[in-house]
Amino acid sequence: MRSLAGQVFLLQLAVVMLLVATALVALVVQAGRDVMADARHRTLAVAQAFANSPGIVAAVNSANPTAVLQPHVEAAGKAAGVDAVVVYGLNGITLAHSDPHQIGRRVIGPYSAAANGKPFTSTFKGSLGLSVVSAVPVRGPDGSVVAIVAVPVTVERVQHRVNRQLPVLLGGAATALVLAAGGSALVGRRLRRQTHGLGPTEMTRMYEHHDAVLHAVREGVLIVGGDGRLLLANDEARRLLDLPADAELRHLAELGLDEGLAELLASDRPATDEVYLAADRLLAVSKRLTAPHGPAGSVVTLRDTTELRTLSGQAEAAGERLRSLYDAGLRIGTSLDVKRTAEELAEVAVPRFADAVTVDLLDPVLRGEDTSGAPAAISELRRSAVAGLDAGHPLHPVRELIRLVPAQPASTAMAEGRPVLVGDLSVSGIWRSEQSEGARRTLDHDIRSMLVVPLRAGGAVLGVVIFWRAKGSPSFEDEDISFAEELATRAAACIDNARRYTREHAMAVALQHSLLPRALPEQSALEVAYRYLPAQAGVGGDWFDVIPLSGTRVALVVGDVVGHGLHAAATMGRLRTAVHNFASLDMPVEELLGRLDELVAQIDAEEVTAGEHGQGVITGATCQYAVYDPTSGRLAIASAGHPGPALVRPDGSVDFPQLPVSPPLGLGAGLPVETAGLTVPEGSRLVLYTDGLIEDRSRDLDAGLDALREALTGPDRTPEATCAAVMEAIPSDRPRDDIALLVARTRRLGPDQVAEWEVPRDPAAVAPVRTACARRLAEWGLEEAGFTAELILSELITNAIRYGAEPIAVRLLRTEPTGSADAGTLIFEVADGSSTSPRLRRAKVTDEGGRGLFLVARFAERWGTRYTAAGKVIWAEQFLHHDAAPEAEELGELLLDQWDDTAL
């Protein structure tokens, strides 16, 4: 409604509504007047007709005029459509009435004129309400008035007739209004199309701006009609085309334009930035047809491109270099490998910017080390990438060490930190003199120009990139330096990132290797082999361990710290150390994982406290811990969020035992860890692994387990062959997650390697057990170790009898490790029902006892205490060497050294 067309429409609509409303009121008033006049005429006519009807006088003068007149009165009232026909005498008494109830009543009203013989019509309020009444006298034969006939019509009836006409009047008015509004809308729509919806102010401003823009714009504007005549030309068009003052409305052929330009302007062909010559100017001409959106014709714009044409080549070259820099940002630095990044730099510049590119880097950069030396002291570079040259090129090949000469462009560029441009190698005296033979071969290979740019990042020099152009390409110019510097800057940042990654990766790998087991410990219970495959993402937190325990038992550990990098490797080292420490205390499987869960929770709490704003790195870790006892073949195993093991039985079948799995480490919230116990047949292979072996984004867990089952199924193989078969089944040699694999084949101690005795709680029982022990050692051929063994066993049994509780049992084990020059190990175990652990101490001079454990610790390789559900076990290990045990004399001297002769 702000547009001109909308305002005109509102004005037309208001005028039409006013006219229709006025006409409607006039019609209603006129209809009311017509109906009232009709009522007067009708009542007068009916009254005259009834008063002058034959027999009316006789009826009035009859003995009973009411009986005679009443039927005629009722019939006449109905036929005439009036409210009543009344006949009354001169005395005002009603003789006949359309309403029989009114007969005999005196009529009150202005009837004096009718009684005097003069008809009249009047409006008054009677018994029927406000009415129009006409009264006519009834004359006798002698002309005297004998009665009066009155005919009333109520105003209500008259108004009802008017109301019946109102719908017709209103309908007509509405129809007229709709037609008028529709016509106004059509007029407004056409006007809106003609004015494009603009308001009066906008139209005025538009025409003002039209004139201002048309004459002030720096582009020429022409409007040409469909007949080829020039309809409009602005000032710039007149200047560019040198048009005469009366050019408008003249035909284009009469304006003296260039033939090609005149042909384009007169045709119906559109054009975009087509260049035409006009006098000494080059004009870019664009033409658009005005049809079908306007009258036939065209609008033409003219731009003077004489000066822009000179700059177009430079702009195109600049745009190409910007695109090259954009592509370089996408293509350089796609990997964190220094050599590959150098190759990407060389490849992205050929052939867009140079015919050949060489990249030379410092050896420390390639190794990921810092380059702390001064640029002037750099004397050697390693050729790291070459691109754009054939196999017979004269330049140094990749991986060759290049010794720099002080005056050489590469040395100058690195020492001064600026690009060095050699536009023509054939006339460069320094370059030819320093590399006479190489310069000659380079020129023979048609290489004519070079641009050397140092690679710098964070103030450190990484190397140089050399751009070469051959014969047939333009030589390098000063305009090329900025592009080469920008390209080198981006590449140097990527090379430096790759160098830093190489350094950090090497540090992380070194840390991880230092934390993982370097060699498996010697033990006789299991034959073990392992594999560790790092992930593609770098150093991870997977680890494994084989930990010998007391009583020939062996602990197998496999764990996984979530994530990669130094934090994961360091956390792995902490957990591995904690497992070793807990295992050295001979903790049960469930207790060890419980303590490890508490440790991880404590590490998380420390990380959160130390992290910025309380947001530290939360450790996610899983662990599986198993203890195998070769004396019974029992395997106690527990898992904290870790996938269960695989068991390959001696017949080659594979089973995945269903084990209870506790929450991952750090999430147990103090809940107890569930343990499973298995009896493993001798010769079975126990396979422990991390989730990277069976889980991958490209396959689900079931598919990974099926692949592992297939790799393990088969005839009996050594653990080493089993590891090789499993690793061959992995789809990729660079998995997404670390893989730790541990395969252990079980062994059992035979009955001839174990001796057991029940011992009553009586000091006298020590001697028989000592004797039985000596007898068993003799059976084993170990008489040389008998004296030391009897001493250790006697002290352990005596300690149990004196301080322990029943039942007391003694077990003697002999192991024969394979691949060792030793004769084996003797293990002494004394179990009792007490949970009190003995404590080693040095006895005082005045003490009569307290030296038993000291002797055990002196002659045993290791000793300790292991708690069981029924009490504890004190154990000691004695290594069997071929050079026998100490002599009895030496043992006696050792015992005597425990007392002070002076004190005695």
UniProtKB/TrEMBL annotation:
The record lists the catalysed reaction(s) as: O-phospho-L-seryl-[protein] + H2O = L-seryl-[protein] + phosphate
| Cellular component, GO annotation | plasma membrane
One Pfam family assigned to this protein is GAF_2
A molecular function (GO) term: ATP binding
What residue intervals traverse the membrane? 166-187
Quote the EC number. Answer: 3.1.3.16
The domain of life is: Bacteria
What does the record say about its membrane topology? Multi-pass membrane protein
What keywords were assigned to this record? Answer: ATP-binding, Cell membrane, Hydrolase, Kinase, Magnesium, Manganese, Membrane, Metal-binding, Nucleotide-binding, Phosphoprotein, Protein phosphatase, Transferase, Transmembrane, Transmembrane helix
Q: Where does this protein reside within or beyond the cell?
A: Cell membrane
Which InterPro entries does the protein's record reference? Bact_Sigma-Reg, GAF, GAF-like_dom_sf, HATPase_C_sf, HATPase_dom, PAS, PPM-type-like_dom_sf, PPM-type_phosphatase-like_dom
The record's principal subcellular location, in a coarse class, is: membrane
Domain named PPM-type phosphatase: residues: 527-746
- Give the protein's function: Primarily acts as an independent SigF regulator that is sensitive to the osmosensory signal, mediating the cross talk of PknD with the SigF regulon. Possesses both phosphatase and kinase activities. The kinase domain functions as a classic anti-sigma factor-like kinase to phosphorylate the anti-anti-sigma factor domain at the canonical regulatory site, and the phosphatase domain antagonizes this activity.
Protein's name according to its UniProt entry: protein-serine/threonine phosphatase
Q: Name the species this protein comes from.
A: Streptomyces alanosinicus
User: What are the leading ranks of the lineage?
Assistant: Bacteria, Bacillati, Actinomycetota, Actinomycetes, Kitasatosporales
